[in-house]
Design brief:
285 residues, mainly alpha, two-stranded antiparallel ribbon, single chain
Length: 285
């Protein structure tokens, strides 16, 4: 109980620090995009996440990268990725993809034994490629639409469907069952920082290249999600009225100013495990 109280106090303190600096400018046409009707609120949450990242998470990730040798960091990342194979196996089964589920089982068994508890990704070397599957992707393959785009506090870019998908994924995540509570917080925080460290270079690129980091992250996230669900047959983005163009009554295609970048890996974002390798803030499982 004491560990729980301390953890909540620490989280509240960090949130207050982020809130003191988190106030986003909102463009006048915010909310007109049909895929992002809550843009005004989303931008505020995005700013909150960004300040939280800059104040707490990114410095911790940079310190972790500077202090811990790269082979040790790779072992640590592989360990948590290996645990996630169980979630991928469950979701591949729910998607009626027995071959993919079998690959996840094979990867878990091989890396847990020959790979020394997941420290080494032996399975990839023998041709069993990692293919992370979340319940949000499962719902998408069932034909459930994503719904409006959302930015969740701490967790980053999401959608109504993807946010709901967080719940069942929590129960298939072995880390969720770690006890006592103090060790759970330690394991979750360690994974959180490790994932953020993996995205340092990618988020630096966003900082330098994106004129509007919010739009950059949103478009990249939605494009990546459509690609993962539909593959080559992924549907195009919804149409929207161009607020700057002439009013013709006909919708125009919403084309991002620049193509969304391919994520550096299948790893989660610093703000959570469902962002498909995309940053959760303007610097950005």
């Amino acid at each position: 109980m004491n560990a729980c109280v301390i953890g909540l106090r620490w989280l509240c303190g960090c949130a207050i620090v982020a809130l003191l600096g988190g106030c986003a400018s909102v463009p006048p046409n915010a909310g007109k995009n049909p895929i992002d009707p809550f843009e005004r609120v989303n931008r505020q949450v995005f700013a909150f996440n960004d300040h939280f990242d800059r104040a707490i998470v990114k410095p911790a990730a940079q310190g972790y990268t500077n202090v811990v040798p790269k082979p040790v960091r790779a072992c640590f990342a592989n360990f948590f990725d290996n645990l996630f194979e169980l979630t991928s196996m469950v979701n591949s089964t729910l998607q009626a993809r027995p071959n993919a589920a079998g690959v996840s089982v094979g990867r878990f068994l091989m890396n847990s034994t020959v790979g020394v508890l997941g420290c080494f990704d032996v399975a990839t070397r023998v041709g069993l490629e990692r293919n992370k599957q979340y319940f949000a992707l499962t719902m998408g393959r069932w034909g459930i639409g994503a719904g409006p785009y959302l930015v969740l506090p701490f967790l980053g870019p999401s959608s109504v469907r993807d946010a709901i998908g967080e719940v069942p994924d929590y129960f298939t995540d072995p880390v969720s069952y770690i006890t006592p509570l103090k060790e759970y917080y330690l394991a979750y925080s360690a994974r959180f920082v490790d994932k953020r460290a993996q995205l340092l270079e990618a988020t630096n690129l966003v900082e330098e290249a994106a004129l509007d980091p919010y739009q950059f992250v949103r478009d990249a996230y939605l494009q990546r999600t459509r690609s993962r669900i539909g593959g080559d047959n992924a549907p195009p983005p919804p149409e929207e009225e161009d607020p700057d163009g002439p009013s013709t009554g006909e919708p125009t295609r919403n084309t991002p100013a620049q193509p969304a970048p391919a994520p550096p890996s299948e790893s989660a974002s610093p703000a959570g495990p469902r962002s498909e390798g995309l940053p959760a803030t303007d610097t950005t499982h």
